[in-house]
Write a structure and sequence with these properties.
A six-stranded antiparallel beta sheet has the order 2-1-3-4-5-6. The relative contact order is 0.22. By secondary structure, it is an alpha+beta fold. It has one domain. It contains six helices and six strands, in the order H-E-H-E-H-E-H-H-E-E-E-H. The chain starts with 12 loop residues before the first helix and ends with a helix. InterPro entries: PPA1309-like.
């Protein structure tokens, strides 16, 4: 379990697998439901299923394995009910979000208790940006996050990577790895 201190990305494989998940999800376009992935050691996966050798990057430390679609319920509630087996080294979640400019936080603070108002405020804000967030975590406390800000005809998508992009989400994902 990670400490309350700054999340870390001590495993160099984790940012790479977070980017791999984002690339995979991105290939299907926008307007997708959240997607969950188990992060499994590639060597273990190949030992159990050698026929996958021609389909996997055998040099990769971790392989993301897409899971069944998540139930259409509150994401925090869904994640709270997930416990991964020991064979899973970590997990990643890809979800689409709305990013608001920093000055919108003050306006948003007055509506924070009313979820419907918060959602309406974010959806209607003139400077909102649609984005896809991938948060990935390992049992050792490592975290990695990739954020793709949706572009338009005049501006390409932007990619931002930092382990602290989604501390609440990475904490919830770490809880799914509890023993």
């Amino acid at each position: 379990m990670p400490s309350a201190e700054t999340p870390r990305s001590s495993s160099p494989a984790l940012p790479a697998v977070a980017r791999e998940v984002e690339d995979f999800v991105s290939a299907a376009g926008w307007d997708q439901a959240p997607q969950l992935f188990a992060l499994v050691p590639t060597a273990d996966l190949l030992a159990q299923q050698p026929d996958l050798a021609d389909k996997l990057d055998t040099d990769a430390v971790l392989t993301p394995v897409a899971q069944e679609p998540l139930p259409d319920r509150d994401l925090a509630e869904v994640l709270g009910g997930i416990v991964w087996p020991e064979a899973v080294s970590g997990c990643a979640l890809a979800q689409e979000i709305v990013v608001l400019p920093p000055d919108a936080e003050e306006e948003l603070a007055s509506t924070a208790e009313d979820t419907e108002r918060v959602l309406r405020f974010a959806a209607e804000h003139p400077r909102r940006r649609e984005a896809r967030l991938v948060a990935a975590v390992l049992r050792d406390g490592s975290t990695a996050c990739v954020l793709r800000l949706r572009g338009d005809a005049d501006h390409p998508d932007e990619i931002v990577e930092h382990p602290e992009l989604a501390p609440n989400l990475t904490a919830a994902l770490h809880q799914t790895l509890r023993p």
